[in-house]
């Protein structure tokens, strides 16, 4: 029995090595997992399920083959880059979409999982923008735009986001500890697993005066990282990005 968590791969045609790392991970590491959770930002940008690039279709086929071959359930929580990923692509990739804050029973331990962008309250500009882009009416209008125009808008937002990120300090990019505690107390959990910050770490904290853990899964730029859980325990694993192709 084994459950795996990954996040923030930011797959794109420009970074084929990350796609190769994902496929190697599925073929060599995750074959005995009963469940795989992808905690957002699997793709660098997502402008709608009606877009069909070779990369999107290749990843969907790989995930479907992996799920069928290993009898593994795949669950997905939206990230800040792919919040428009819909039911059509989820079905194509054999993934089940989950709410942005989801409670799971992880081998007897109640655990809260999420992408993690809602934890970064110091990044006020992003939080304001998030309220706008998650407006269902605006999302409907965006989906009605021609695909070519949506592509242009999506990549402009991506470029602007990357430019602003370079000037943000660690406090803005990191989580707000008070919000971590608030959410963990609200959901009644002693364990939180999330992504978004790209800072792989197992944080030892206290919630309700009891020991607790916050697992930050990490990104897949220079290293690959995942949280590995089984009935005996839970750990964060960080490996070189080419580990499964050595």
Secondary-structure blueprint of this entry?
Blueprint: E1 3-6, H1 16-28, E2 35-38, H2 54-70, E3 73-76, H3 87-92, E4 95-97, E5 101-106, E6 109-114, H4 124-133, H5 136-144, H6 147-165, H7 170-173, H8 177-187, E7 191-194, E8 201-207, E9 210-216, E10 223-230, E11 233-240
Parallel strand pairs: 1-2, 2-3, 3-4, 6-7, 7-9
Antiparallel strand pairs: 1-10, 5-6, 8-9, 10-11
Keywords:
246 residues; alpha/beta; Purple Acid Phosphatase, chain A, domain 2; 6-stranded mixed sheet; 5-stranded mixed sheet; 11 strands
Quick overview of this protein structure:
With 246 residues, the protein is of the alpha/beta class. It is built from eight helices and eleven strands. Strand 10 and strand 11 form a beta hairpin.
Can you give a write-up of this model?
The protein is an alpha/beta fold. The chain has one domain (3-245): 4-Layer Sandwich (Purple Acid Phosphatase, chain A, domain 2), CATH 3.60.21. The chain contains 8 helices and 11 strands. Strands 4-3-2-1-10-11 form a 6-stranded mixed beta sheet. Helix 1 runs parallel beside helix 2 (54-70). The two termini are 27 Å apart.
Strand content: 15-25%
Question: Structural class, from secondary structure content?
Answer: alpha/beta
Low-confidence parts lasting 5 or more residues at pLDDT below 50? none
Write down the domain tally. Answer: 1
Question: If classified by CATH, what would the architecture be?
Answer: 4-Layer Sandwich
Number of helices: 8
The N- to C-terminal Cα distance equals 27 Å
> Percent helix among the residues?
25-40%
**Average pLDDT number:** 88
- CATH third-level topology: Purple Acid Phosphatase, chain A, domain 2
Backbone shape:
globular
In CATH's first tier, which class applies?
Alpha Beta
């Amino acid at each position: 029995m084994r459950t795996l968590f990954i996040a923030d791969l930011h797959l794109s045609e420009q970074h084929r090595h990350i796609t190769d790392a994902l496929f190697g991970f599925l073929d060599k590491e995750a074959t005995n997992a009963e469940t795989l959770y992808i905690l957002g930002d699997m793709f660098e940008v997502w402008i709608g399920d009606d877009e069909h690039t070779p990369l999107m279709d290749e990843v969907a086929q790989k995930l479907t083959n992996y799920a069928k071959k290993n009898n593994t359930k795949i669950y997905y929580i939206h990230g800040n880059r792919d919040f428009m990923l819909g039911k059509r692509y989820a079905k194509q990739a054999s993934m089940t979409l989950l709410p942005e804050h989801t409670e799971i029973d992880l081998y007897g331990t109640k655990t809260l999982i999420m992408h993690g962008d809602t934890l970064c309250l110091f990044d006020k500009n992003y939080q304001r923008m998030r309220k706008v882009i998650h407006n269902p009416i605006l999302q409907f209008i965006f989906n009605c735009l021609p695909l070519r125009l949506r592509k242009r808008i999506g990549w402009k937002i991506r470029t602007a986001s990357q430019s602003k990120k370079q000037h943000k300090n660690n406090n803005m990019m990191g989580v707000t500890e008070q919000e971590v505690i608030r959410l963990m107390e609200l959901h009644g959990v002693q364990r939180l697993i999330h992504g978004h910050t790209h800072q792989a770490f197992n944080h030892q904290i206290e919630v309700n005066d009891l020991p607790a853990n916050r697992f930050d899964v990490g990104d897949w730029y220079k290293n690959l990282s995942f949280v590995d859980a089984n009935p005996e325990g839970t750990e964060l694993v960080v490996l070189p990005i080419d580990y499964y192709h050595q």
